[in-house]
Amino acid sequence: MDIKFEMIFFILTGIAVFVFAVWIITTERRLKRFFLGKKAKDLENTIAVLENNITQLKKARENIEKDIVVINTKMKKSIRGLETVRFNPFPDQGSNQSFAIGMLNEEGDGVVFSSLYSRERMSVFAKPIKNSKSEYELSSEEKEVLKRAQIK
C-alpha cells in the first residue's frame, strides 16, 4: 500500500516538474524574442525616454486642468442668454419699430437695452441687471425679454 502512494507521489511530482520546466522554457523564449537585438543601454535609454514622456504628459494634463477651470470661470461670466422682443409702444402710430434686448450670463447679471421709436424721435435706454433684477423700473417688454433670456 505504501508503494502505491510513493508511486503516485513520484508521478505527480514528475508531472509538476515537467509543467514547471515547460513554463520556464516558454517564458525564456518570449523574453529572448522581446530583447532580440537590444542591449542593456538601449533598454535603459528607452525607459528614460518613456519616463520623460510620461512626465511631460502629466505636466500638460495639469496645465489643461488649470485652463479648464479658467475657461469655466469665464464662461459663467460671459453672455449666454440673449433675447429680443419687438413691440409698438404707441398703438396709433407706426409698427413694431421699438425693441428690447436682454443679455444675461449664468449668474443672472447683464443688461437690458430698449429702443422706443416714434415719428419725432428715437430713445435708447440701457438698464443694468444684477441677479436677474434691475434697480430701475422695467417695462412689460423688458420684463418679458429678461425672463426669456434667463438660462435654464
Automatic annotation (TrEMBL):
<dbReference type="Pfam" id="PF14584">
    <property type="entry name" value="DUF4446"/>
</dbReference>
<keyword id="KW-0175">Coiled coil</keyword>
<keyword id="KW-1133">Transmembrane helix</keyword>
<keyword id="KW-0812">Transmembrane</keyword>
<feature type="transmembrane region" description="Helical">
    <location>
        <begin position="6"/>
        <end position="25"/>
    </location>
</feature>
<keyword id="KW-0472">Membrane</keyword>
<dbReference type="InterPro" id="IPR027981">
    <property type="entry name" value="DUF4446"/>
</dbReference>
<feature type="coiled-coil region">
    <location>
        <begin position="40"/>
        <end position="67"/>
    </location>
</feature>
<protein>
    <recommendedName>
        <fullName>DUF4446 domain-containing protein</fullName>
    </recommendedName>
</protein>
